[in-house]
Amino acid sequence: MKSPVHRCRDPEHGRGEHGRGDHGRAESRQESRAGYLQAEQRIPISKDIITSSSASAMWFIRDACGIVCAVITWMLVLYAEFVVVFVMLLPSKNLTYSLINGVVFNSLAFLALASHFRAMCTDPGAVPKGNATKEYIESLQLKPGQVVYKCPKCCSIKPDRAHHCSVCKRCIRKMDHHCPWVNNCVGENNQKYFVLFTMYIALISLHSLTMVVFHFLYCFEDDWTKCSSFSPPATVILLILLCFEALLFLIFTSVMFGTQVHSICTDETGIEQLKKEERRWAKKNKWMNMRAVFGHPFSILWFSPLATPEQGKAETYQYVV
Ligand SMILES: [Zn+2]
Ligand SMILES: [Zn+2]
Q1: Per the UniProt record, which residue ranges are transmembrane (predicted)?
Q2: Least confident of 180-189, 190-199, 271-280
Q3: How far is the CA of 170 from the centre of ligand 1 (A)?
């Protein structure tokens, strides 16, 4: 056989699905006995070799279920906006109360929708499709004995910690999960926007719940015909629906936010936790892990979905056997 002696592996059937467990180690030992392979080690390779070149281009997943869920998300936020402004704040006699709550609620709602838009339309870290060609692998000039992992589904060279998403039909770097509510995968490049989305939705849910409680108290004390520009039955129905919506989303997004922050701090994606994959990457402290997702140094921009975090400093590791 001609050199270079590199081999393509299917990681989903090798190490990917089952981690580098006994099976992987037994395989390694067998290969070592073959005499042409070196001890296991990792080498950093340039990120732009395997990162999508379309990172700055518009990204949108054409998935009917995801598009419907994303539209529902926007409709629910706009419904909350309608009830808060037209049922509760505008009819209120206290101008200061209406003004402060109106500014806070609308700002948070804008940040939530902006985070959603960026989470949906940012390339989560897709690996170029079909780049695992013989010519391309040869152009990488791998050293003899190096192994590159190939995804059998999208035929791409799969970097370490990347997983294939069947909805996006791509391998995604540091894929956490595919979220239909943002119609996209949550991965290395858009996790910040997803975390901000869950945080701002939890905040507007909490804020609108508080306002609903105050408005009910105000209506009970005052005359129901004067506390809203809508009829009393319509007001009650609109407020109860908002109450249910806010409560449901407050619970859902708070849990999601907590899970995401935990997985960022421990530097372990949702998929890695589920598959109980063995840690093959360097352990860093929580602060460094947070900075890797939100950008560095810490600033108010961490909370802005309009600011793109500084990416690309982290080295990409590839397994060599
Ligand atoms: Zn793939
Ligand atoms: Zn996906």
Answers
A1: 64-89, 95-114, 193-218, 230-252
A2: 271-280
A3: 5
pTM exceeds 0.90 for this model = no
Ligand of minimum distance to the alpha carbon of 62:
2
Q: Which residues are catalytic?
A: 179
DSSP letter (8 states) at residue 7: E
Provide the domain count of the chain. Answer: 1
User: How remote is the CA of residue 70 from the centroid of ligand 2, in Å?
Assistant: 14
Structure confidence at residue 38 (pLDDT): 32
Which ligand sits closest to the CA of 153? 1
3-state secondary structure 62-111: CCHHHHHHHHHHHHHHHHHHHHHHHHHHCCCCCHHHHHHHHHHHHHHHHH
Give the amino acid at 146. Q
Radius of gyration of the chain (CA): 25
Ligand 1 centroid–CA 210 distance in Å is 45
Range of the domain at 192: 1-321
Tell me how many helices (H) and strands (E) the chain has.
Answer: 10, 8
